[in-house]
Protein backbone atom coordinates (compact mmCIF):
# COMPACT_ATOMS: atom_id res chain seq x y z
CA UNK A 1 0.00 0.00 0.00
CA UNK A 2 1.14 3.52 -0.77
CA UNK A 3 1.97 5.56 2.37
CA UNK A 4 -0.26 8.55 1.60
CA UNK A 5 -0.44 9.75 5.20
CA UNK A 6 3.35 9.84 5.44
CA UNK A 7 3.64 12.25 2.50
CA UNK A 8 2.65 15.12 4.80
CA UNK A 9 3.77 15.98 8.30
CA UNK A 10 1.49 17.11 11.13
CA UNK A 11 1.41 20.67 9.77
CA UNK A 12 0.44 19.53 6.27
CA UNK A 13 3.85 20.19 4.72
CA UNK A 14 5.13 18.03 1.87
CA UNK A 15 7.65 15.30 2.77
CA UNK A 16 9.90 14.92 -0.28
CA UNK A 17 11.93 12.05 1.24
CA UNK A 18 8.89 9.77 1.45
CA UNK A 19 7.95 10.66 -2.12
CA UNK A 20 11.47 9.95 -3.42
CA UNK A 21 11.55 6.61 -1.58
CA UNK A 22 8.13 5.38 -2.84
CA UNK A 23 7.76 7.12 -6.22
CA UNK A 24 4.57 8.41 -7.76
CA UNK A 25 1.24 6.92 -6.73
CA UNK A 26 -0.70 5.20 -9.47
CA UNK A 27 -4.37 5.71 -10.15
CA UNK A 28 -6.71 2.89 -10.97
CA UNK A 29 -8.11 2.44 -14.48
CA UNK A 30 -11.58 3.37 -13.22
CA UNK A 31 -10.28 6.65 -11.79
CA UNK A 32 -8.33 7.39 -15.00
CA UNK A 33 -11.46 6.80 -17.14
CA UNK A 34 -13.40 9.16 -14.89
CA UNK A 35 -10.84 11.89 -15.44
CA UNK A 36 -10.72 11.15 -19.17
CA UNK A 37 -14.50 11.45 -19.54
CA UNK A 38 -14.44 14.69 -17.57
CA UNK A 39 -11.86 16.22 -19.90
CA UNK A 40 -13.79 14.99 -22.93
CA UNK A 41 -17.01 16.58 -21.65
CA UNK A 42 -15.28 19.90 -20.92
CA UNK A 43 -13.67 19.91 -24.38
CA UNK A 44 -16.98 18.99 -25.97
CA UNK A 45 -18.80 21.80 -24.17
CA UNK A 46 -16.32 24.36 -25.47
CA UNK A 47 -16.40 23.05 -29.04
CA UNK A 48 -20.21 22.67 -29.01
CA UNK A 49 -20.66 26.25 -27.81
CA UNK A 50 -18.16 27.56 -30.36
CA UNK A 51 -19.72 25.63 -33.26
CA UNK A 52 -23.45 25.91 -32.52
CA UNK A 53 -23.86 29.01 -30.35
CA UNK A 54 -21.05 31.30 -31.52
CA UNK A 55 -23.38 33.78 -33.22
CA UNK A 56 -25.65 33.88 -30.17
CA UNK A 57 -22.69 34.50 -27.84
CA UNK A 58 -21.25 37.14 -30.14
CA UNK A 59 -24.62 38.89 -30.43
CA UNK A 60 -25.17 38.82 -26.67
CA UNK A 61 -21.92 40.69 -26.01
CA UNK A 62 -22.42 43.30 -28.74
CA UNK A 63 -23.91 46.73 -28.05
CA UNK A 64 -26.92 45.98 -30.26
CA UNK A 65 -27.27 42.48 -28.84
CA UNK A 66 -30.88 43.08 -27.79
CA UNK A 67 -31.84 43.58 -31.45
CA UNK A 68 -30.86 39.97 -32.19
CA UNK A 69 -32.96 38.52 -29.37
CA UNK A 70 -36.47 37.15 -29.89
CA UNK A 71 -39.46 39.41 -29.33
CA UNK A 72 -40.56 37.32 -26.32
CA UNK A 73 -37.19 37.82 -24.64
CA UNK A 74 -37.34 41.55 -25.40
CA UNK A 75 -40.80 41.84 -23.83
CA UNK A 76 -39.60 39.94 -20.76
CA UNK A 77 -36.53 42.16 -20.50
CA UNK A 78 -38.65 45.33 -20.63
CA UNK A 79 -40.51 44.29 -17.48
CA UNK A 80 -37.40 44.99 -15.40
CA UNK A 81 -35.35 48.12 -14.98
CA UNK A 82 -31.67 47.56 -15.82
CA UNK A 83 -29.14 47.06 -13.06
CA UNK A 84 -25.88 48.95 -13.32
CA UNK A 85 -23.03 46.76 -14.56
CA UNK A 86 -20.58 48.14 -12.00
CA UNK A 87 -22.62 46.57 -9.18
CA UNK A 88 -21.70 43.08 -10.35
CA UNK A 89 -18.04 43.99 -10.78
CA UNK A 90 -17.96 45.64 -7.36
CA UNK A 91 -19.54 42.57 -5.77
CA UNK A 92 -17.02 40.21 -7.41
CA UNK A 93 -14.13 42.40 -6.25
CA UNK A 94 -15.54 42.63 -2.72
CA UNK A 95 -16.02 38.87 -2.37
CA UNK A 96 -12.57 38.21 -3.88
CA UNK A 97 -10.99 40.65 -1.43
CA UNK A 98 -12.80 38.99 1.48
CA UNK A 99 -11.52 35.58 0.30
CA UNK A 100 -7.93 36.84 0.04
CA UNK A 101 -8.10 38.53 3.46
CA UNK A 102 -9.65 35.44 5.06
CA UNK A 103 -6.92 33.24 3.60
CA UNK A 104 -4.26 35.63 4.92
CA UNK A 105 -5.87 35.95 8.37
CA UNK A 106 -6.08 32.18 8.89
CA UNK A 107 -2.76 31.37 7.16
CA UNK A 108 -4.42 29.30 4.45
CA UNK A 109 -1.98 28.35 1.72
CA UNK A 110 -3.92 29.83 -1.20
CA UNK A 111 -2.06 32.88 -2.56
CA UNK A 112 -3.96 35.92 -3.80
CA UNK A 113 -3.11 35.29 -7.46
CA UNK A 114 -4.64 31.80 -7.32
CA UNK A 115 -7.94 33.36 -6.18
CA UNK A 116 -7.89 35.56 -9.29
CA UNK A 117 -7.11 32.62 -11.57
CA UNK A 118 -9.92 30.56 -9.98
CA UNK A 119 -12.47 33.31 -10.54
CA UNK A 120 -11.29 33.85 -14.14
CA UNK A 121 -11.55 30.10 -14.76
CA UNK A 122 -15.13 30.11 -13.49
CA UNK A 123 -16.03 33.19 -15.55
CA UNK A 124 -14.61 31.70 -18.75
CA UNK A 125 -16.64 28.49 -18.36
CA UNK A 126 -19.98 30.09 -17.42
CA UNK A 127 -21.01 30.53 -21.07
CA UNK A 128 -20.05 27.11 -22.54
CA UNK A 129 -21.20 25.10 -19.53
CA UNK A 130 -24.31 27.29 -19.23
CA UNK A 131 -25.15 26.70 -22.90
CA UNK A 132 -24.94 22.93 -22.41
CA UNK A 133 -27.02 23.17 -19.24
CA UNK A 134 -29.64 25.33 -20.98
CA UNK A 135 -30.01 22.84 -23.83
CA UNK A 136 -29.74 19.52 -21.99
CA UNK A 137 -30.44 20.29 -18.33
CA UNK A 138 -27.10 18.68 -17.37
CA UNK A 139 -24.27 20.66 -15.86
CA UNK A 140 -20.74 19.62 -16.74
CA UNK A 141 -18.41 19.67 -13.77
CA UNK A 142 -15.47 22.03 -13.78
CA UNK A 143 -14.07 20.46 -10.62
CA UNK A 144 -11.53 18.09 -12.21
CA UNK A 145 -10.10 20.76 -14.54
CA UNK A 146 -9.87 23.21 -11.63
CA UNK A 147 -8.22 20.49 -9.53
CA UNK A 148 -5.58 19.83 -12.19
CA UNK A 149 -4.88 23.55 -12.65
CA UNK A 150 -4.65 24.03 -8.88
CA UNK A 151 -2.28 21.07 -8.62
CA UNK A 152 0.01 22.50 -11.29
CA UNK A 153 -0.07 25.99 -9.80
CA UNK A 154 0.47 24.99 -6.18
CA UNK A 155 2.61 21.85 -6.35
CA UNK A 156 3.07 19.90 -3.11
CA UNK A 157 0.31 21.97 -1.49
CA UNK A 158 -2.87 19.90 -1.41
CA UNK A 159 -4.85 22.39 0.68
CA UNK A 160 -4.16 25.25 -1.74
CA UNK A 161 -4.89 23.05 -4.76
CA UNK A 162 -8.22 21.92 -3.33
CA UNK A 163 -9.12 25.52 -2.51
CA UNK A 164 -8.43 26.47 -6.15
CA UNK A 165 -10.72 23.62 -7.16
CA UNK A 166 -13.47 24.64 -4.75
CA UNK A 167 -13.24 28.34 -5.63
CA UNK A 168 -13.32 27.75 -9.39
CA UNK A 169 -16.00 25.08 -9.39
CA UNK A 170 -18.29 26.66 -6.83
CA UNK A 171 -18.01 30.13 -8.41
CA UNK A 172 -19.19 28.75 -11.74
CA UNK A 173 -21.90 26.59 -10.16
CA UNK A 174 -23.29 29.46 -8.11
CA UNK A 175 -23.17 31.81 -11.10
CA UNK A 176 -25.18 29.34 -13.18
CA UNK A 177 -27.63 28.79 -10.33
CA UNK A 178 -28.13 32.56 -10.05
CA UNK A 179 -28.75 32.83 -13.80
CA UNK A 180 -31.19 29.91 -13.62
CA UNK A 181 -33.08 31.44 -10.70
CA UNK A 182 -33.20 34.86 -12.36
CA UNK A 183 -34.60 33.31 -15.54
CA UNK A 184 -37.17 31.36 -13.54
CA UNK A 185 -38.24 34.57 -11.80
CA UNK A 186 -38.41 36.37 -15.13
CA UNK A 187 -40.60 33.67 -16.69
CA UNK A 188 -42.84 33.66 -13.62
CA UNK A 189 -43.03 37.49 -13.87
CA UNK A 190 -41.81 37.92 -10.30
CA UNK A 191 -40.92 41.54 -9.54
CA UNK A 192 -37.47 41.65 -7.98
CA UNK A 193 -37.99 45.03 -6.31
Major β-sheet annotation = none
Shape: elongated
Beta-strand portion reads under 5%
Rg from Cα = 21 Å
Low-confidence stretches: none
**Overall pLDDT score:** 84
Number of helices: 8
Beta-strand segment tally: 0
Helix content: 55-70%
N-to-C series of helices and strands? HHHHHHHH
Structural class: mainly alpha
Termini separation: 59 Å
Provide key terms for this protein.
193 residues, mainly alpha, 8 helices
Summarize the structure.
With 193 residues, the chain is an all-alpha fold. The chain is built from eight helices and no strands. The termini are far apart.
Give a structural overview.
69% of the residues lie in helices and 0% in strands. It contains 8 helices and no strands. The model has no long low-confidence stretch (mean pLDDT 84).
Fold topology:
Elements (H helix, E strand, L loop, with lengths): L15 H7 L6 H24 L1 H7 L10 H8 L6 H21 L6 H25 L6 H11 L4 H30 L6
